[in-house]
Amino acid sequence: MPKNTVCLWYDGDAEAAARFYAATFPDSAVRAVHRAPSDYPAGKAGDVLTVEFTVVGIPCLGLNGGPAFSHNQAFSFQIATEDQEETDRYWNAIVGNGGQENGCGWCRDRWGLFWQITPRVLSDALAAGGEEAKRAFEAMMTMGKINVAAIEAARRG
Questions:
Q1: Is there a contact between 69 and 48 (Cβ–Cβ < 8 Å)?
Q2: Which domain holds residue 59?
Q3: What's the pLDDT tens digit per position in 74-130?
Q4: What is the pLDDT of residues 4-53, one digit of tens each?
Q5: Do the Cβ atoms of 49 and 64 come closer than 8 Å?
Q6: 20 and 54: one domain?
Q7: What is the pTM of this model?
């Protein structure tokens, strides 16, 4: 296990989530599945307790801790995309697998984890500053999934 790992709390379905992420994103994989050696408050001996996985190269540990805690927008994965096709692919995979749309390029997967699917054109526009950034930001504020062509048009004015 890496020295620093993001630990994500799940209500019994960490393995399903990890396998979905591994199938959806590049440089992602399920590394190990560990079973509980004895009963614990959220499960029984032999249940999946933790899952070691990576999401776009980031090491994670999925912990099946039960229903006590849930994900919120204070933590999210931000996935930089190159174009509308890649943006659509990730967005549709998450939302189409029981997730839900949120505003400004955010969506939530079926396990409650939040994702920012962010085309580089938007990041570049915001980094440019000035009126260009303002126009791109104002366009983004009206969107669910980011529309690359609309951001490019806003950048041009």
A1: no
A2: 6-64
A3: 999 999 999 999 999 999 999 999 999 999 999 999 999 999 999 999 999 999 999
A4: 999 999 999 999 999 999 999 999 999 999 999 999 998 999 999 999 99
A5: yes
A6: yes
A7: 0.94
Residues 50 and 84 in one domain: no
Do the domain assignments include residue 71? no
For helices 14-24 and 84-96, the axis angle rounded to 10 degrees is 160
Domain count, the chain: 2
**133-148: pLDDT as tens digits:** 999 999 999 999 999 9
- Whether 1 is in a domain gets the answer no
- Unique residue bearing structure tokens 């899952």: 51
User: In this structure, are 82 and 60 located in the same domain?
Assistant: no
Based on the fold, state whether residues 45 and 115 are members of the same structural domain: no
